[in-house]
Amino acid sequence: MWGFENPVRIYFGIGAFDSVGELINGRPYCLATYDQPYFLELGAKLASQAGKPEAVINNITPNPDFLTLADSCQMFAQAVTDDTVIIALGGGSVIDTAKVLASSNQGFSPVRRFLETGEGEDRLTAYPIIAVPTTAGTGSEVTRWATVWDVEAQKKYSLARYALYPQQAVIDPALTLGVPKDLTISTALDALSHALESIWNHNSNPVSANHAVFAATEMIAALPLLVDDLKNVALRARVANACLFAGLAFSNTKTALAHSVSYPITLKYSIPHGLACSFSLPMVLASVIGENAECDRNLRRIFGDDLESATVELENFLHNLGISTKASSYGVQSDEWQELLTTALAGERGRNFIGTPERVLEKFTS
Q1: Minimal CA–CA distance to 147: which of 95, 203, 103?
Q2: Whose CB has fewer CB within 10 Å in the chain, the N or C terminal residue?
Q3: Could you tell me the residue ranges of all domains in the chain?
Q4: Closest residue by Cα to residue 148 from 43, 274, 60
């Protein structure tokens, strides 16, 4: 038996941002976004359509942390009303922050308790979210979880609740036109990791696999073209579409080994998430070939019949984007890398992986 569910209403296309005012439909709204000129302009455009927001939460930084989230939740609590809708306008960090805000009940403390103990979900709220991504990568606009960091304690948490699926996702590829090259690559590789990790996954099903195969195939084809032509809105749309389908895929499977091993690397070495979870993909691919017939079949749909050459193809794809596939390039030496892999395999995301620890450790490279 298998099942697939995703309740998010999706609006996709050039100019889709202009529909956000209609989706707000006269409700009071809180705008979660970045404190940067581009987002001030977008906020002003939205205000001209939907009126002024009752609150603007713009203290958001990459990798939302307990300290900044506590401040954000306090600002939100001071302005929120029962019928508030949250507009998450920005990258994955903004959308993840919006999910924390949506859960916070007069402050961050109930959310923190739930993250640290798994208790008290009945005390959390569920304000509706309209997600408007301005990067193509995390897929958070169609998932029910948010990544939350406790940098001081060197821990990463996942806030996972069905109520956190956004009500609507508005994906306007034109909003990504100003994203610089390095961020374009990093976020897109996060999406590629989502796609591949939902294939070599115990939770894979025919619907998620079809989404993932499309996402990975399209990302591998379109991203190198976009890197050489960043102002090409058609290519931006292809990459955004691939990101969306990757998000739909892993919204039902969750991620696996590459993501599991990435989190301590991001925490310790400040490696951007998209790079931290993608540089190991060729190694993981090499370790999983032949382990599962259905997985192999789906990988052939992406890489062709000769899976023995797939690892080299994926490695060359990353190298041509300027991405090293060696852990040592990111400050992780051999002994630590092996220890991180062993720990990751035993973690929740690592247990989603259909491969074996023996094969992974056989293939690992420093």
Answers
A1: 95
A2: N
A3: 9-174, 179-363
A4: 60
The whole-angstrom separation of Cα 345 and Cα 238 is 33
Q: What secondary structure letter does DSSP report for 123?
A: G
**Residue 207 corresponds to which tokens in the numbers above?**
């619907």
Largest CA-CA distance found in the chain, in angstroms, rounded: 59
- The token duo for 115 is 């993250």
- Name the CATH topology of 179-363: Dehydroquinate synthase-like, alpha domain (1.20.1090)
Average pLDDT (128-143) is 97
- What mean pLDDT do residues 53-77 have? 96
Check whether 366 has a pLDDT greater than 90: no
Q: How far apart are CA 275 and CA 101, in angstroms?
A: 27
Is the CA virtual torsion 255, 257, 263, 265 positive or negative? negative
Per-residue pLDDT tens over the stretch 224-282: 999 999 999 999 999 999 999 999 999 999 999 999 999 999 999 999 999 999 999 99
Distance of alpha carbon 1 from alpha carbon 121, whole angstroms: 29
- CA 106 – CA 104 distance, rounded (Å): 6
340, two tokens: 């991180």
* Concatenated DSSP letters of 234-263: HHHHHHHHHHHHHHHHHHHH---HHHHHHH
Distance CA 167, CA 86 (A): 10
CA triple 160-165-169, angle to 5 deg: 140
